[in-house]
Amino acid sequence: MKLLKLVPDDTNIKFLKWRVPFFVVSLLLIAASWALVMTKGLNYGVDFAGGLEVRATFTERSEAPVSELRSDIEGLGYGSPVVQRFGEDNQVSIRVRLPDEVSADNEAAQAAANAVVQELQGKYPDFRLDGNDNVSGKVSGEFREDAVFALVLAMLGVALYIWIRFEWQFGVGGLFALFHDVSLTLGMFSLFQLEFSLQIIAAILAIIGYSLNDTIVVYDRIRENLKKYRKMPLPELLDLSVNETLARTVMTSLTLLVALIPLLLFGPASLFGLTAAITLGIFVGTYSSIYMAAPLLVWMGVTSNSFIPEETVADRQEKKLRGEV
Amino acid sequence: MLEFPTWKKVMLWAVAIMGALAALPSIASLTNNDWPDQLPDPTVNLGLDLAGGSHILLEAERSQVAAKRLEDMEEGVRNALRRAEPQRIRIGDVSTDGGELSFLLDDAADIDRARGEIEDLMAGTGPVREWDLQVVDGQRFVLTPTEAGLDNAVDAAMEGALRTIGIRVDELGTREPTILRQGDTRIVVQVPGLQDPDALKALLGKTAKLEFKLVERDASAEEVQRGFVPGGEVYPYADTDTYQGTGVVVQRLGGIDGETLTGAIQTFDSQTNEPVVSITFNPEGGTRFRTMTTKYTGRQFAIILDGEVISAPVMREPIVNGQSQISGSFTTESANELAIQLRSGALPVDLAVVEERTVGPDLGADSIKQGLLAMGIGTLLVMVLMIVTYGRFGIYSTVALVINVMMLLGIMAMLGATLTLPGIAGFVLTIGAAVDANVLINERIREERKRGRRVMAAVENGYKEASRAIYDANITNFIAGVLLFQFGSGPIKGFAVVLVVGLFTSVFTAVPLTRMWVAGWLRKARPSDLNI
């Protein structure tokens, strides 16, 4: 049986040739992402913004009355809600961001949640409550802090490990690649104003994990080649390493996509945001391993001596005895 | 490479088979198949987002515990000094402003006696000092609560609240509720499969502090607003539709509280047929109730729940049997709720709902079905891709993949870990990680063959060289996973559990297990070329 080969054997793409323009573009993208996050902000779900979210199915109709729902809840005086299709056409998610003074008062927040559900149950006989989340301002603030803390800590933790296992330049490169992935994901969420929830944090973590895998595979090969080809100029050596691992990169990305796409198409609606983010992250993560993590090594001056163990006194004496020195 | 000692083979097979078998009860329960009762059946716990149910986070205010403690101290001091021997110690200018209790002795000569009485009150149960006492200007006593003492008080209040909530949730008759303390001042209540979260909230959110007090007169609106009048306290009516007026003035001291209750049950009033709550006092409470109703027959009593008057009936005759009933505008449900709350005792501290999440049971079941279907399709596609790319080696990888998924499920079941919706995404990622390990190995073998190494050497080198990257990648992910589990919340934790357990199973199945199979095949077939 003839086996499938995704990447031809003699592939030799000059990735590093374009490292400056690509790096500049990436830096611009990172800057643009943060600018977006600062100015436009993230569309926080109830996890991070507080307030309430009600998910419901209208069992007797094929399409949920989205605009009516919006005005119904507006009538309750908590500001305008976000009403979105969620899964099937007759399913909706209604997000109400309570005014600060209501959100801060636990009892008032509970009353508001009840009022919304009762209003809809009273008005629509086929309203089926599928679930609701109600998060107070205080807890949502803690979730935000926790999430940022966990993210930063995870990134620093893995960078430290890479530093110990490889060289400091690799640790910095890896950390920068992760920073790139996280920034771009945040930028994407800000640009399209997709709902940003605790689940998305889980997705970003998955992206970090995946991107890290990629970076380490490439780094491992660079380390190996540094020992093997001691005279080769670094950019050339990096190109060689990336090309050598390219078949693996393509295959792994493809298998992950193949596993994720059914989840996007047939998975539960509540998992869509998470899977979509991971899917996007696979591209971003692969790109950053090649175009961020590797070129940084050139600029930070990794040399082939980095991984040669220092000669010990004993070694030298042995060599002397053999007359090699 | 080809040398696999028998013990090693036995061990690898044993771990793989046992791990995979451990998943069977979970698979049976997830797909609604019967699992024989005789067999052990640890199944993986489903998070509420999958199983349906309610998650409620309750929080107490530390400041409230502090205020109540100060109040209790004030009452204790007043009582102790009043009862002091040989004659009472008179004090004035009592204040609890600024979080400390201070008062002035009328007579400076009482200072040593007063100090003695108060030091008795200050002695806590533990070794820590709970209060600091200062005497200013020889006559003013200042009692300041210590942080350690407050910590103890908060802790005791939360433990008490935990017990009370346990009783209340049990009364709902739901299966396997989880009630846990979280941090210093929070309690998580999770009830799988709960149909009516409102009932749960109503049950938990109420302190259920019950008091009976003698009514002086109706209160004016301003008095209700102010909350107190000299010598008395003002309570508003809970239900102003039924009761005329805004509230009542009651005597501040005296009265009976709910702690003397031994029973409470929802019944119907024999005359009006309205739902009421019948209550029974313990002997001490019964005696006090009898004394009070005898002395004040014909007067109005206020029945006060959590600071609001439920009803204020006139006591027509002394109540001597230690039983009474509380009427008010109840429905059968609300009367039953109150009965449960009274039976479980008052919460030692008010708890507010700060987070609530409910997932309808239908939706949860749908999510599982869709999630499993998607995972199944995904796994199948991955398998096809692996086999068309790597042939025989792909087959080994895919068998390992199946064992991996089962082991992951099985180990989670044995650990009692919880599978959540983000956990399903974690599963997909683990599948990716497992496949990646095999991709690395197989690509490496391809490379080694291309460089002209012989079959055995190529396979051996493939495993050896690829392992370094595999272990490094997995250890970094492990570090990230552990940090996430430690510092993350909710969905992040659910994701981290799968990630961490999955790292172990995927490395195990992707490296040593496939290596054993490949070695076995190589030894038997002795191929001169590899189709990879």
Automatic annotation (TrEMBL), chain A:
Annotated ranges, domain Protein export membrane protein SecD/SecF C-terminal: 120-301
Keyword field: Cell membrane, Membrane, Protein transport, Translocation, Transmembrane, Transmembrane helix, Transport
TM annotation in the entry: 20-37, 147-164, 171-192, 198-219, 240-265, 271-299
Signal peptide limits: none
Topology in the lipid bilayer: Multi-pass membrane protein
Subcellular location: Cell membrane
Alphabetized InterPro entries for the sequence: SecD/SecF_arch_bac (IPR022813), SecD/SecF_bac (IPR022645), SecD/SecF_CS (IPR022646), SecD_SecF_C (IPR048634), SecD_SecF_C_bact (IPR055344), SecF_bac (IPR005665)
A Pfam family of this chain: SecD_SecF_C
Highest rank taxon of the organism: Bacteria
Assembly description: Forms a complex with SecD. Part of the essential Sec protein translocation apparatus which comprises SecA, SecYEG and auxiliary proteins SecDF-YajC and YidC.
Function: Part of the Sec protein translocase complex. Interacts with the SecYEG preprotein conducting channel. SecDF uses the proton motive force (PMF) to complete protein translocation after the ATP-dependent function of SecA.
Family, as annotated: Belongs to the SecD/SecF family. SecF subfamily.
Name assigned to this protein: Protein-export membrane protein SecF
Automatic annotation (TrEMBL), chain B:
Predominant localisation class: membrane
Domain SecDF P1 head subdomain: residue ranges: 242-349
Ranges of residues in domain Protein translocase subunit SecDF P1: 158-216
This protein's record includes keyword Zinc: no
Membrane protein topology class: Multi-pass membrane protein
Domain Protein export membrane protein SecD/SecF C-terminal: 350-516
Protein's UniProt name: Protein translocase subunit SecD
